[in-house]
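Protein modeling request. Please complete all fields; requests missing the sequence field cannot be processed.
Requester role: graduate student
Desired output: 3D structure, token encoding
Chains: 1
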Amino acid sequence: MKILVANLGSTSLKYRLFDLADGQERLLAKGGFERVTDYARAIGDCLAQLKENGAIQGEDELAAVGFKTVMARGVNGCVRLNESVVRAMEEYNHIAPAHNPPYIAGIRMFAERMPGTPLVGLFETAFYQWASEASCRYAVPEAWHALGIRRWGFHGASHKFIAERSAELLGRPEVAARVRDLYVGGPGAAVADPPLRVISCHLGGSSSITGIRNGIALGNSLGMSPQSGLPHNNRVGDLDAFALPFLMRSAGVSLDEAERILCRESGLKGLSGISNDVRDLVGQAAEGNGRAQLALEVYVHQIRHWIGAYYLELNGLDALVFTAGIGENQWRIRQAVCEGLDQLGIRLDAALNERQRATEGAIGAAGAPVRILVIPTNEELVVAREVKRHLENNPNHHTTSNLK
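Delivered output (404 residues):
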């Protein structure tokens, strides 16, 4: 079963092709395009590349195209992307302006080009379906909550992968199996003590922290929108709700302009005034640039804030996991996050930490109570697995045209 996973950004298209036949999970091809201005052409080029390298002979070999969709009003989990789902995504365009519009455009173009191939989305909010109501509520009137003003949480595919893989590495196969089947049967039966307590740090252009007990997410640092939580590359992160009306009244900034600044000119870029790339900021900070250093310190401060919150809620910790581009590669960020936490059982091995780059491995000090792990995430594989399950559980989808 060949499943193409398309990751659509505001100016990019990245793809991976998996073959999940006969219980195997093989990556057949991967690639991508940057600075995309014509998505129809990019999709055509993607499919052409797959044919040229022999990964597929024709588009009809694809069992489905899967998408790491972000959010949709009233929709969650892994679903066929029909017209009603796409319209539900459009209702949240203003909440996820950097994510939903390009995904919707790409989905419609795939549907036009491949009308008989199922298009399936795994929503990033799915992993938090079993978080407590208290962890998801804002202190707003019930009518506001009914509109969807609540903490949703994102990066669900990444944190789900970390929940499963960390359980395997920590010798808890029953927890790994629970995570693997989560979207099919829910949490299922309780897992025997002792509990497995993991904090997953997805640190990249967009960042979030999740606390995980026995494979189930307690919540996520991201809230109602992907602009919340930690500072992101150029998105603001958490901000007092009254800052926006204050800015509009005091500086005469329009709502549209404020939204643009919060989404494109804030975060690490806004703090540093230099770059939205941590690699640049680390280099500039080393040369004495104070604003670059401040941006890194704010970023680390917020990471530690959320680790502390979930450490308390978990009543301890078995593993602290770093993943995504920054988490997997930036040893200085990992060092700063873990500094001075020895009384919590979090102790790095400095040499191991400095050597660890983009591969799976342990970086904690020998004998420390908390394991510290680097685990490269694989969101696309999670999407492909769930798309396969969805197709197997809904065989009639193969006879239904897209966006109907």
